[in-house]
Task: inverse folding
């Protein structure tokens, strides 16, 4: 069974600080996605990384896929209160069913 | 576009009752999924479908059933509700290209 472990599970920081969320597995994934979820809503896709070693930037968010395609990280620079939410990583295996395996999520609280 | 629409938003069931969670999408996506989300557990796949007439079990299918008679609709049926089925249920859809999921806004179900 493929598993994704996210760390930390909870993060409470002040506005302006930097942070990194990690997503680790012993399994290889064909691609990895990051989602952000706000209370009462479904997750919303932030990014998809496909190639080992790939780095993608989305404004203040930087996503990296590990060289071996087993792990990923999300780095936020100068966090803002609007970044508050639940961040989920999700890996796709080699099957053609589109199924995603989700990590347990990281709850981020950014205080003003 | 409406995207993925789930109804109802909230529901309270008594133990042993049955209900159907509705999910419809207007993006002509072949792939559809049902996940449940419990605190600190991420999203667990219940059932999925790769096209009309084709469904398969996910990680936690016991106590649930699905059907996919059209591309648009993917209802989830709960028979003989149990307290362990108290959760937030999300329906999602995706194209077969490996793109990200589009999620509905969820159904919060409580079984008492």
Result:
């Amino acid at each position: 069974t493929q598993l994704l472990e996210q760390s930390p599970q909870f993060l409470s920081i002040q506005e302006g600080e930097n942070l990194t969320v990690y997503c680790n597995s012993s399994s290889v994934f064909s691609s990895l996605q990051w989602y952000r979820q706000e209370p009462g809503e479904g997750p919303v896709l932030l990014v998809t990384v496909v190639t080992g070693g790939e780095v993608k930037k989305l404004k203040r968010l930087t996503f990296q896929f590990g060289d071996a395609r087993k792990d990923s990280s999300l780095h936020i620079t100068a966090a803002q209160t609007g970044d508050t939410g639940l961040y989920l990583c999700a890996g796709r295996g080699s099957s053609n069913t589109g199924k995603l395996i989700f990590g347990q999520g990281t709850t981020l609280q950014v205080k003003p | 576009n409406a995207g993925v629409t789930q109804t109802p938003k909230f529901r309270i069931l008594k133990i042993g009752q049955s209900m159907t969670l509705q999910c419809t999408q207007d993006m002509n996506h072949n792939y559809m999924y049902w996940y449940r989300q419990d605190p600190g557990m991420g999203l667990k796949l219940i059932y999925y479908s790769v096209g009309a007439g084709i469904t398969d079990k996910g990680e936690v299918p016991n106590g649930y059933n699905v059907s996919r008679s059209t591309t648009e609709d993917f209802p989830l049926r709960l028979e003989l509700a149990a307290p362990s089925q108290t959760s937030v249920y999300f329906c999602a859809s995706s194209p077969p290209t490996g793109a990200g999921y589009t999620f509905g806004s969820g159904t919060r179900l409580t079984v008492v």
Summary: The first strand of chain A starts at residue 5 and ends at 7. Chain A is about 0% helix and 55% strand. The interface with chain B takes residues 4, 6, 9, 30-31, 33, 35, 40-45, 48, 50, 88, 90, 92, 96-100, 102-105 of chain A (CB under 8 Å).
